[in-house]
Amino acid sequence: MTDRTENLLLALPGLLLLAVAFFVPIARMLALSVSGPDGVTLDHFARFLSDPFYLGVLWRTVRLAAVITLICALIGFPFAYIMARVGPRLRLWMVIAVILPLMTSVVIRTFGWMVLLGRSGLVPRILRDLGLADRGFGLMQTETAIVIGMVQVLLPFMTLSILGVISRLDRRLEEAARTMGCSFAATIRTVVLPLAMPGIVAGSLLVFTLSASSFVTPNLLGGTRIQVLAASIYKSVTQTLDWPFAAAQAVILFAGVLLVLIPYAKMTARRDG
Amino acid sequence: MVRAVPAPLRILAWIFVILTILLLLAPLVVVVGVSVSQSEFIAFPPDGLSLRWYQDVLSSGTYLAAAAASLQIAMLVTVLSTLVGGAAAIALHRGRLPFSGLVETVFLSPLVLPTIIYAIGALMLWSTFFGPVSTATLWIGHTVVALPYVVRTTLAVLSEADPFLEEAARTMGAGRLQRLWFVVVPQCLPGLAAGAFFAFNISFDEAVLSLFLRKPDMVTLPVQIYSRLEFSPDPSVAAVSTIMIALTILLILVIDRILGLQRFASS
What we know:
The structure holds 2 protein chains of 2 kinds.
Chain A: H1 3-33, E1 35-36, E2 39-40, H2 43-50, H3 52-85, H4 88-103, H5 106-117, H6 122-129, H7 143-166, H8 171-179, H9 184-212, H10 216-222, H11 229-238, H12 243-272
Antiparallel strand pairs in A: 1-2
Helix pairs in contact in A: 1-12, 3-4, 3-7, 3-9, 4-7, 5-7, 5-10, 7-9, 7-10, 8-9, 9-12, 11-12
Chain B: H1 7-35, H2 52-58, H3 61-94, H4 100-112, H5 115-129, H6 135-158, H7 164-171, H8 176-205, H9 208-212, H10 221-230, H11 235-259, H12 261-266
């Protein structure tokens, strides 16, 4: 037996498992999306793309994912930068604040937001007390609620992705910029931000795909009235039992995700290599 | 010496950090708060203080059954993904595989593909060929999702291991299995252990796959919580959630001991 055979044998169970339990299901979904009563058909796609309701669902999904990604980047970059530059004690707290939610079930975190944002919840109550909202004001079942919940769910991904890049930056670059007369803001703008860009872009692509395909949080915070693509897929699977149509919607989501993930894969490969 | 950060900005940074930590932890704190409330209704801050909802959970058949199902699946997933993922990571680390770049991408791909797409495919494939879904469906499904984490943690630990140790064992006449068992496996043990805890956590908390593949007689804890939230949440949901948060904290502490959280956060 050669070393090559030994390694192949070690990797084989995993490769087989992924082939049978990961790639075949995806292929099955692709096949089902074009299957009709008599052979191959694109009817399910045509139905989705010609119905203003579903186009609205698609547009809402993309729009919300873009807003969520932007907010995550705006919070994630400074947070990751501070995390990389503070003392070990505060950093530990910041790490915990990122990891603990990340490892807690999305269902539980969404539940927390349902309590906070509900009609008698803390957030609307504070807004009402401050006179910023009138008495009937509620946040549940709005797109705002989805954005708030999703930002909390996905911020850890953005932060860790940016932190990975920033923690490898040479601090002396910033010191050099300062000694050369750069202000702090100018140093961030001209030195840190460009160097951190790969992390920001990678984090944004990841957050965008995750939020475009998320299901639990939008469904519970937005309610049935505000549907996103993932919720619409779930409805086709469990309520109308229209599996080919569900598969077609999943393929549309899949195509969008691939469009975003291919540059992501290229970028992370370059960073490692 | 240049003054590092201007004072007003420093204060602003503090406020920003505190607000962000608040945003990240608020939903968890709220859930814990609701769980000790005395009233029948979900309220935060809680009215009064009692442990009645914990009593409720611990005497409720539905919650206990869901917890048992979750635990069973999570343990099966932990074992399978650690074995399969660990072996794959060792092969990947040695790098003498045909198409090793492609193989690594394959192993990490469940990480980036949204679970919902995979869940649809798994449901449709399984119902066509194997009939109704069972515990095995979730076992395999969660293992696929957890696999990349085990591969990653094991690879990370191996990349810092001494490559000459195995060489030395070889020159001393150790056979293939001996080298694997006595040299390589002990070297990647911290990575395997951390990966195992991650796998457990992922399976125990996973909701999307479990929702698509759910059956009336096989409901996991996250699915149970989800359906309560859709229809009639009461503070018992908060109590069971709090128990799950406590378990997560325990897992994080263990992973921190094994691997170091700081390292995990900056990798």
